[in-house]
Amino acid sequence: MTDKPRSTRLRVLIPFAIVTLIWGTTWIVIRDQLSVVPPSWSVAYRFALGGATMLVWAAIRREPLWLPRKGMIFATLLGLMQFVLNFNLVYRSEQYITSGVVAIVFALLLVPNAILSRIFLGQRMGRQLLAGSAVAIAGVVLLFIHEGRLSPVGPEQAITGITLALCAVMCASTANVMQATETSKTWPMASVIGWAMLSGALIDAVFALAVSGPPSFEWRIGYIAGLIYLGVLGSALSFSLYFALIREIGPAKAAYSSVAIPVVAMIFSTLFEGYRWSLLAASGAVLVIAGLVIALRARRPNR
């Protein structure tokens, strides 16, 4: 097998590095967003800003801003899975467990991405990917046990948080596979993501109104700065790069970025949230990362 040209490798590695750095820090920023404003309203604000940013970028690139009916339906479904269900579950999971643990659970995105790619895209899974997935899942089980013991209100709260995070992973994986289909490649990506975020923000706002009441906003500088960071960098920029990777190399391989993200997130969680490590938690984290690295080292883990 010949090596890929340097330009091709850089076209993959540079977006990987940017996405890993940004998403590795967004977890701690999300945590700060939960102090006053209800999670659903924070999600709605984030993707309203992200969607507007994407459409401005599409206009700068002179791409069609309006999608045909089929394209709008696709964007709305994508927004529902990625920017409504996924992120409402993520924000709520961080009300129960630390951001670092949520990031580690999200590292398992590789597993459903590979499985759904096999089912819907016909991409076969290698044995090393299966073996690595089993090791990573064992690590999450240890994290379940550790968080259950650590929780001051009992194991139910920790289990609730991790379960919410796992449900978010499944929703994100569904959206990832949608982006890898030929249907999604029919329309300009910036416009699709923009409308997906805006439609998601609208649904988020309706949901927030129903469960949390009228809109509320925190005029604290930290909240506003965090909202801009999450909306522009953590959403518009990162999802543009990540979805481009999905179209380039497939959902399973694109999810390899999740291998390094928990490392960054756990460092920030330890520094700013006072995350308490134990032998059990460290063992779980090591198993998750080790399992994903095993899958990463496979020559053709998703053929």
Which key features would you list for this structure?
single chain, 303 residues, mainly alpha, 12 helices, 76% helix, 0% strand
Explain this structure:
With 303 residues, the chain is mainly α. Helices cover 76% and strands 0% of the residues. The protein has helices spanning 6-32, 39-60, 69-93, 99-106, 110-120, 127-150, 155-180, 189-212, 221-249, 251-254, 261-272, 279-296. α1 packs antiparallel against α4. The mean pLDDT is 84.
Poorly predicted runs are none
Beta content = under 5%
Order of helices and strands: HHHHHHHHHHHH
Q: Which percent range fits the helix content?
A: over 70%
CA(first)-CA(last) distance: 14 Å
Write down how many β-strands occur, each being a DSSP E stretch of 2 or more residues.
Answer: 0
CA gyration radius, whole angstroms: 19 Å
Overall geometry: globular
Counted by DSSP, the helix tally is 12
What number is the mean pLDDT?
84
